[in-house]
Amino acid sequence: MNGKNVWIRIRGIYATALTNLFLKAGFKITQPTPPIISRFNLQEVSINPPNATIKDGDDRKRLIIIGDPEVVDEILQLMKKIFFENIIIKKYKPELYASFLGIVKEVLETGSLINIGVCDGFLPGVFNYKKGETILVHVKKPSFNNQVVLGYGFVVNGKYLRLMEQGRISISKHIRNPQRVKDLLNLSRLLLGNSKWGIRWRSSAKLASLNDLVEEYEKLREKAANLKEKAGKLQAKAPLQLTKGEKLVELILPLQTKTILDDYRNEVLPTAIGHHYIKSINTDVEQALEVCEFLIANNLDRTKISNELSKYILNKLLFVKKPIKVIHETTEGSRIIIHGVLEKQDGETLYIKRSFKPGGKYDGLNLPKEEGDYGITIIKIGSPLTCHLYYGKNNDLKGVYVNLNTPVELADKNTIWYIDLKVDVVANLKEKTVKILDRDQLENLFKNGVISRKHLELTLKTAENVSRFLESLAEISVSQIIQLINQTPCFTNITR
Asked: What local confidence, expressed as pLDDT, does residue 118 receive?
């Protein structure tokens, strides 16, 4: 399959940039929104069901791609090429709504653990299964790094609907027209009668003719009957996949990738450098963005305007002497919130003071937390380093912990966000040692396809440079940490 035979549906704040990107690559755009139709002067508007859909994640700092596995893989290859392999890729497995002939591995109080071959999945609910029994299941919730959730029975996927064994009638939340919802409910009851099957109407059903919907239902019903018969003959071959599902991938977009998308959008509309970064910030600062892009449209210098916009955003979102939080997000999706007070701001460089309760030890340093201890965290917007300095009550520096991450971004008022890249560099002043920690965890990100080889090599090189710098110092001070941050290659400004 190649882009010329693929229909892509795009939604969200990156839609204009991505539409430009995919049209250039030879893909076809289906079900475009009115602004996209206007911006690209689309003469023929397709309502074909998409082979894949691309949309924002909830925080607008990532893309969700879902669709035919081969098409999603093709999209990923293009994204890697365009973004110079800076994206973070989270592939969820197995395929969503794929059906399996599984084997009961363990019966638990709240459900059963089922071996489906590619992994084990959890089937919630109390059933009278026995260990070793074969059952039909489908994937309800694929996983990146957690437990897969299964549903009972199998699913047959179509363009407009899913036919689900032991299911119910449900309709995509994207179908909002009351009359269309009513028509689909009535059609479902007519088609299903008293059967034990269910129908899930997909979003593309809102644009299809009733004849097309009935035709697809009949095809899926016949396919389901054949699969049911086939499954009965394949009990001895379990665990076994029976039907294909949809591939689900999450692409996290670091700061530099958002700026690449700014350039793609700028080919269509006057666009400030930092447009998508600003759009991804929770606080409403879009009016300033609109004013700047109006000025750019009237031939004012794009770089100068974008620089001033960057300064405005910092001024609008950062408040000295007020509480601030740092969102430390892992590649697995968990978030650790680091709280402190923004003591000082010097342009894009932030100084955050933190207090600690006595007891326990500092991670990576093996030093005790004592009464009166405090920390200074130094962060620069766009930097791949987050530097934590730990002090005793007499202002004596105990140790330094340098976290390597994606370029630091503002996420909201007095809120910082980045993705942790696992590897850290620590300096224990008591023991006079400097160590690189968790190098193996960073390498595992590459082995698991989360980051590229180039990303791995750059991050390792940065860690080694940080380590050498700290080892070269007779004493460590705040000014030297600032020097370290400033000399480390980074995305220091949204205007490149």
From this structure: 92
